[in-house]
Write a structure and sequence with these properties.
- Helix 2 links the parallel strand 1 and strand 2.
- The chain contains nine helices and ten strands.
- It is an alpha/beta fold and 263 residues long.
- A seven-stranded mixed sheet has the order 3-2-1-7-8-10-9, sandwiched between helices. A three-stranded mixed sheet has the order 4-6-5.
- The two termini are 33 Å apart.
Length: 263
């Protein structure tokens, strides 16, 4: 598959990550409807579309303007009725928000940069990968092993400084229930949320009458202020009886967890 992108180095990393969304009983089948919240360039949507025999209704959301342009180009490869790309994010209310946009690490851009532990998490993930060789790992990780440890540390810090050069960007936010109403959505077979610390904002934008339309949820949760527990309680209160919480081995010790919920 050929895709449009902003940074080629991100593509294989994101491609590995998006396949984690369909685990622990989460399924997508031909004819289903997917809400891809925090779509980035749309790799999960494209991968799921192929997996569902090119029969999937997709609503993809990406608030960062530069990233959205790549998402839009990828969406245009499909029929407009099949994949709708929206140039806004989802939140508790309709508003404009300032994001810290990382042009060299677009998937890590966030509306919550204060107290953000993402840099430390990425550094720890690199060190964990270095200590645990994997044939699927990026070439950069293999190359780092060739250097002595002190040079390796300098190279890692240099790379992190490059990745986390932030640029403030104003982004539009809408409510998920507004999208459901405006597009007459009757059912969401999978709501996937990966929004770098804004996950609870997305869920709070769902009105009570719309929760029953959502059949499955895959969500990356940053466990700040017991957010994993708060998200679990919210989902249970709206009828999600099977909830699985997992953490990627590379992210052990961080506050990042994947949550899978089935009604």
């Amino acid at each position: 598959m050929r895709v449009y992108y902003l940074r080629e180095a991100e593509v294989p990393v994101l491609y590995e990550q998006v396949q984690e969304y369909l685990r622990y009983g989460i399924e997508l089948n031909p004819g289903d409807t997917l809400f891809d919240v925090g779509a980035n360039i749309g790799l999960f949507s494209l991968w799921a579309y192929e997996r569902c025999q090119r029969n999937l209704q997709i609503y993809a959301f990406e608030p960062i303007p530069e990233v959205f342009e790549a998402l839009k180009l990828n969406a245009q490869r499909l029929a407009p009725v099949t994949m709708k790309a929206f140039s806004f994010g989802l939140a508790q209310e309709r508003k404009s928000v300032v994001f810290d946009y990382y042009p060299n690490a677009t998937a890590l851009s966030t509306a919550y940069p204060e107290g953000n532990q993402t840099r430390a998490t990425v550094e720890q993930a690199i060190k964990t990968a270095l200590a645990n060789p994997d044939p699927r790992e990026p070439f950069d990780i293999w190359l780092l092993r060739l250097f002595p440890s002190f040079i390796r540390s300098l190279l890692i810090n240099y790379k992190l400084d490059e990745l986390f050069q932030a640029k403030p960007v104003y982004c539009k936010m809408h409510r998920l229930s507004d999208v459901i109403r405006d597009h007459s959505v009757q059912q969401i077979d999978l709501l996937k949320i990966d929004v770098e610390r804004s996950e609870l904002d997305v869920l709070m934008g769902i009105e009570p009458q719309d929760w029953c339309k959502i059949k499955q949820i895959t969500i990356e949760v940053h466990d700040h202020s017991q957010r994993v527990d708060r998200v679990c309680e919210l989902l249970k209160s709206h009828g999600f009886s099977k909830i699985t919480i997992k953490q990627d081995p590379l992210l052990q010790g961080s506050d990042i967890f994947n949550l899978y919920a089935i009604r």
